[in-house]
Fold this sequence. Notes:
Layout: H1 2-21, E1 27-31, E2 37-38, E3 44-49, E4 59-63, E5 76-77, E6 84-88, E7 95-104, E8 110-119
Parallel strand pairs: 2-8
Antiparallel strand pairs: 1-3, 3-6, 4-7, 5-6, 7-8
Bound molecules: copper (II) ion (CU).
Amino acid sequence: MKRWLSRLFAFASAMTVVSLAGAHAFLDHATPAVGSAVRASPAQVKLWFTQELEPAFSSVRVMDRSGRQVDKGDPQVDRAEATLLRVSVPQLAAGTYRVAWRVLSVDTHVTEGDFTFDVVP
Ligand SMILES: [Cu+2]
């Protein structure tokens, strides 16, 4: 019985590792880069994920330091590149901006996260 239980545990932890390492759309990289400082305001914030996204249920917002939404409200998954989510932003003044994303990947899992970047004068 003990041996059976320990085998079950070993199997269960192996499965956990597989599911963590396997699926889900996580942020791979972004422009501006996560935590970066850029001198020029970008025209768009772009996020690349580790999996293709479901356009209808994937979104991203950009907020200023006070939490006010500053993006143009046009988040979209790129038609040619389904791992790319982008949103347009107006000319951004110097400051810290927070990018918050929530996506549904094609494996039907929802993930979310956020990061900041700075626009420096
Ligand atoms: Cu998943």
